[in-house]
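Input sequence (324 aa), recorded before submission:
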Amino acid sequence: MNVRRLIPTAALAGAVALGATALTACSGGGATGSKDGKLAVTASFYPMQFLAEQIGKDHVKVDGLTKPGVEPHDLEITPRQTAQLGEADVVLYLKSLQPAVDKAVAQSGVKNVVDAATLTRLEAHASAGHDHGAEEGHTEGEGHDHGHGEAGTDPHVWLDPAKYAEVAKGVGAALEKADPSHAADYRKNTDELVGQLTALDTEFKDGLKNTASRTFITTHAAFGYLAERYGLDQEGISGVDPESEPSPARMKELQEVAKKENVSTVFFETLASDKTAKVLASDTGLKTDVLDPLEGISDKSQGADYFEVMRSNLKNLQKALGSK
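Predicted structure, C-alpha cell format:
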C-alpha cells in the first residue's frame, strides 16, 4: 500500500523532519501494512482501540498511540509514532480531542483515516459554568477544526452508549472498505457490539430512572452526553480539561449547588489528579467516588474493559444519586 508516491514533496519534507524512519513505510509487506497479513490499524486512544479490537478481532493488528495510564489530552507524539502512523492501513481517531494526534494524522498520508467526530453528531455542552460552547446553534460539521474539544463541541461521545454504537457502525464500515475480503466478519462483529451497547444503554436508562437527585459533580466535565441521554445534570468543577484549576467563585457556586440539589458525592477520575475533588468534598462534607471518563484503561481502572468500567460508573452514579 504505497501511498507515499502520491504525497506532495512539501509533506514529504515534513515527514523527513519528523523522523527519517517515516520513509521506511514503503517497504511494508504486501497489500496490508502488518507483516502477518493482518490489517494494521492505529487507534488514537482507548475508546477507538476498543472498537477496532472488538470489530476487527483476528483480522486486525491494533496499535494504540496513547499508552495505558496516560491522560490522552496531554499526549505528545514522538517521531517514531508519526512514522508508525504512516505505515498503518487504517487510522482511527477523534478529531479535536488530541491536538498532537490531529497534526500527526494530517501529516501521515494514510489513505483510510476515520475521524469518529464525523460518525455521530457532536454537541456543545455548557460545562462548569464557563461559557464553553455558549454560542448555541452549532451545525453538525462545526467545531471539527477547533484546536481542542473545549472550543465549541464536546468530544466525549463514547460515554453515551447510543452514540458510541453509531461510531462503532462507522468504524465497522471503514474496516469493511479497507479489507473487503473479511467484510462479512466485520459486519457480524459490528452488529454484535452494537447489540451489547444497546443493552448497556438500557441498563443505564433503567438504573437511573428513579433517583433521589439528578445532579452530579465531577472534576472532569466529560459526561455531558451521558447526562443528556439519561436526564441528569452534570456540574463540572473545571470544564472539559481535567487539569485546569477552578476559581474560588466556582467552588462556592458548587457548594450551593450541592446543598440545593441534594448532592452527596463529588466524582473524580482515575487518570487525573483528585486534589480538587478532595478539597471540594472536605469543604462541603461530601463523599468522593470515581466516575471514569474511560479515556484509557490502567491497573487503577474499575474494570478491565469499556463495558466493565461503564457498569462501575453506573453503580457509582446510582449510589451517589440515591437510586430508589
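Checked by second reader. The mean pLDDT is 82.
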